[in-house]
Amino acid sequence: MIGAIAGDIIGSVYERYPIKTTSFPLFSASSRFTDDTVLTLAVANSILNNIDYATSLKAFARRYPAADYGISFYQWVQSSSVEPYNSWGNGSAMRVSPVGFAFNSAEAVLNEAEQSAAVTHNHPEGIKGAQATALAIYMARKGTGKAEIQNEISHRFGYHLDRSLDEVRMTYFFDVSCQGSVPESIIAFLESRDLEEAIRNAISLGGDADTMGSIAGGIAQAFYEKMSPTIIAEVRQRLPDEFLEIIDKFNDRYGINIG
After folding, report:
1. Low pLDDT (below 70) residues in the chain
2. Is-above-0.85 flag for pTM?
3. Alpha-carbon distance 20 to 43, whole Å?
């Protein structure tokens, strides 16, 4: 899941200042983790410690209140209610990468992705975005080729993945919906040659940069397996010890080697 976290941190400075190029500095003094990272770690924590998703999501968001959460999610976190609010936003997809790495059948991944989404994003599009992202990660880490991943995600979820990145970039704009950002993030991965390029591709579309970088980065980590030591070091130095401990424990338990 550190690929997803890398996408979040790299994309953080471009969320409010969209760009339409893949040529940009990966890291700067302003690069930081956002809600994508906090909630990804909350999902990982749920899986590692058998804690229900709502409890973990609320606990992490309350410990890191300045991570730029969406208004509806923030209100849910601050309330005493655990009822979902029917969101179709891409928050369900940005946090789901641990599911794709931790479970060992497509059926289990799809079921768990739905559970992780439905505590807040119980709209069909919110669930679909999480499932598509998690299934792509699962297929990638199992050695499935890009053409098969594209075909399966397209047919199962009705996403139009036959567009080129250049075609998407020409008309794309900021969109926080699952249906308007998950397919494009997957296309960014499909046209990449390594994890860095997948993240650059996603950010270059000029949309919800940190979340799209997170989605593309999570799939790319699973597919390419290895990450640049420089990217790993830049990411780790921007994370609190609590996050590093969860990442290391998760990688160890599920046999994830990124070095």
Report:
1. 259
2. yes
3. 31
